[in-house]
């Protein structure tokens, strides 16, 4: 089961942190009990409690982490904190039982855009990251400005399929060898174009925006393959549900690159991926105490 707050935040055009935390408090006990029931297990059958403690919105993180600490303490079950990004990467192991590190992971969500070298199950190196807006943030802002609503990514994806990528938009490149991204320029260019000329076909605008960010993404991924000589690429995070991006990655298979794309329901935030990362941390010996705190800017390794 996945409990979602999307309908609650839809009318505000984005996630309102305070409302998110309050709704987590209302949902968590119900979700916990239902998850145990659906899995036909009792709390004493559980080996480890593996909450995520960052990165993310501090209020929302604190609800899950405090609840997890209480279950861990009351039942004497080990507590293993999980980095949310590691969770997205570990979603791949749920879909592909045969997948083993090393591989490259392209992490694309509402808060992060990173190319990560997965050296081992709990060992990572960030090769490139966004210097401003995350890719999902750019999708969401473009959607909001052209009037598609929240969450924007899936709506841009759908409308872009009816359009033609015939509008030229700028790309940001950094000098030197960096694999870092910047998506604020393209986002602002789309917003300015729409404001200056609201008559521009929205489907064509969405298709052009999607093609532009995908081209940038693929240029960086090809560079990362060249640098590391790793030919296994996995996708992670909500934006990896995007149909145009998935198609672009699929085309890399013609160049002998193996592509791993998690099931769509495992791409967006879910607890199964956190449990998957928790499992690898647990067998690697990680244990946390009750002093574990929510860390909004938690980095990977
Ligand atoms: O990983 P995620 O569920 O949450 C975090 O950010 O942690 O990612 C959410 C992001 C949102 O920006 C949403 O608009 C985007 O993923 N997204 C998509 C699609 N589905 C979700 N972006 C583009 N195309 C999609 N089909």
Word description of this protein:
A 5-stranded mixed β-sheet has the order 5-4-3-6-7, sandwiched between helices. A two-stranded parallel sheet has the order 1-2. The longest helix is centred in the last third of the chain and has 27 residues, at 202-228. The chain has 301 residues and is an alpha/beta fold. The chain folds into 2 domains: 6-81, ATPase, nucleotide binding domain (Nucleotidyltransferase, domain 5); 99-266, ATPase, nucleotide binding domain (Nucleotidyltransferase, domain 5, 2-Layer Sandwich), CATH 3.30.420.40. The chain starts with 5 loop residues before the first helix and ends in an 18-residue tail after the last helix. The protein has helices spanning 6-10, 17-38, 58-75, 84-95, 135-145, 152-160, 184-196, 202-228, 243-251, 264-267, 271-283; strands at residues 52-54, 82-83, 103-108, 113-120, 123-129, 232-236, 258-260. 5'-O-[(R)-(carboxyoxy)(hydroxy)phosphoryl]adenosine binds at residues 109-111, 136, 139-140, 151-154, 157, 237-239, 241-242, 268-269.
In short:
With 301 residues, the protein is of the alpha/beta class.
């Amino acid at each position: 089961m996945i409990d979602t707050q999307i309908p609650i935040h839809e009318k505000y055009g984005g996630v309102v942190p305070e409302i998110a935390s309050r709704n987590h408090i209302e949902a968590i006990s119900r979700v916990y009990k239902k998850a145990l029931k659906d899995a036909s297990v009792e709390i004493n059958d559980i080996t480890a409690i593996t909450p995520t403690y960052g990165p993310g919105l501090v209020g929302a993180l604190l609800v899950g982490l405090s609840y997890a600490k209480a279950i861990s303490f009351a039942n004497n079950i080990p507590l293993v904190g999980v980095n949310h990004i590691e969770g997205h990467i570990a979603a791949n192991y749920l879909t592909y039982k045969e997948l083993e590190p090393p591989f490259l992971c392209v992490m694309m969500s509402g808060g992060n855009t990173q190319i990560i070298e997965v050296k081992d199950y709990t060992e990572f190196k960030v090769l490139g990251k966004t210097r401003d807006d995350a890719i999902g943030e750019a999708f969401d802002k473009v959607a909001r400005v052209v009037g598609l609503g929240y969450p924007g990514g899936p709506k841009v994806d759908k409308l872009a399929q009816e359009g033609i990528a015939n509008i030229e938009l700028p790309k940001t490149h950094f000098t030197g060898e960096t694999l870092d991204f910047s998506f604020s320029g393209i986002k602002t260019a789309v917003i300015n174009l729409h404001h200056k000329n609201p008559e521009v076909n929205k489907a064509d605008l969405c298709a052009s925006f999607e093609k532009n960010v995908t081209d940038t993404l693929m240029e960086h991924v090809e560079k990362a393959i060249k640098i590391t000589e790793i030919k296994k690429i996995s996708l992670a995070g909500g934006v990896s549900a995007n149909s145009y991006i998935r198609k672009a990655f699929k085309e890399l298979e013609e160049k002998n690159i193996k592509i791993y794309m998690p099931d769509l329901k495992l791409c967006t935030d879910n607890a199964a991926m956190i449990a998957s990362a928790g499992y690898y941390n647990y067998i690697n010996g990680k244990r946390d105490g009750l002093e574990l705190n929510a860390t909004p800017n938690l980095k990977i390794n």
